[in-house]
Amino acid sequence: MKVVVISGSPRKNANTQILMKYVFEYTKSKYQDTKLINLSDGHIEYYRGPDIEYNETTKSAANDIMDADVWLIGSPIYNSFFSSALKNLFEYIDYKKTPGKVAGITILAAGNIGFINVQTLITQLMSYFRVITNPKAVFLTTESVKENSITDEDTKSRLREMVDETLEIALKLHKN
User: Fold this and answer.
1) For the chain, what is the mean pLDDT?
2) Is the pTM of this model over 0.70?
């Protein structure tokens, strides 16, 4: 099974990337064919239409997403929405190549507000791509990250649980 972990924050030193790097390492310990797309790296170009030649990082990220069976997506909440960089990334994805994939979601916010709205928006985006979304998202506040690391075992446990449940859904779907 191929897995892609997507860190949806474009900010350098983003808390989202700290969480999603943890998700990546945990997932990679289970499935070697796991890749990380970290939008904090800043190498994904802005989408400018289908007839433009994009850099290799951008093309590779799009192909990794379309090739993966499972998408583990992390997004911060910016202005009551998921990041525009994450939306930009999905502009490259061909919806004809994505039906039946499975996604898990982690959402990070400054406070305990807006989680359900952003989960709904990301789930709607996944529905457009005909991706089955694990209904149990992980909601975290920035208090979960301090000094470039995850602050508590409960956060790590919830992230691992999201990964395990999402992978379990994918395995059940691919058996049939």
Assistant:
1) 95
2) yes
